[in-house]
Amino acid sequence: MYVQYLHWLGRVITGDFGYSTSNSMSVSDAILDRMPATLTLMGSALLVSLSVGVVLGIYSALKPYSIADYAVTTLAFFGQSMPVFWFALMLQLAFSVNGFTAFGYHFALPSAGLSDNDSFDLGDRLKHLVLPTVVLSLLYVAGWSRFMRSSMLEVVKTDYVRTASAKGLSQRVIVLKHALKNALIPLVTVIALALPDLVGGAVVTESIFAWPGMGRLFYNGLQQFDFALLMGYLMLTSLLVVFFNLLADVAYAWLDPRVKYS
User: Fold this and answer.
1) What pTM was estimated for this model as a whole?
2) Which CATH number characterizes residue 151's domain?
3) Which of 27, 36, 43, 232 has a CA that sits 20 to 30 A from residue 149's CA?
């Protein structure tokens, strides 16, 4: 087995990841064919997770132990403990099977797939993107909001923040200009470790919503014992882990000038 692995690794160095038996094409082509759908889903999930998680974390830190803080904490516990497959099925039942009524109109979101037709329709793509994005974002919003809250609570107690407040600066300027940049440093590590999972594809989410991305490709390959495809996918994920950790180190130096790399 180790001889086969060394032969495979030698081909990988030349860019040959092998042949996917479940897709009847090379592993590289199979992954590249599914990557645009995954990047679309992961990009929207990252955007929602960052914007909502950071905002909730800051708001919760500025009003500690208030009703709003407890509400954000409850949301975080809900997001971290909720099984992804169950939450996805409940959303499909509520917003696709039953639908919802707003402003006198009945709406139903698509439950599966990337679009209803082969032609590019932005509105149709966005409708298909809503439910998987919500499911995939929930866990990250919950975790990142808690990290942001803890980090911001420490930063707002520092001397330079108190000095800025004593100078009469508004809370908005203090938070956005002085506190936020330093409070983001611990969060950068968490995001860097999560990005390979996002780019690599969410296997459960893509499988439930029949999203034609890399996560569903991995699941189908796992069912059909397509070892070349599985190894190519895992190699890509491993490279992404190394790359995003390097990116996190660079981000440290930008966020905190005191960090120096020799």
Assistant:
1) 0.82
2) 1.10.3720.10
3) 43
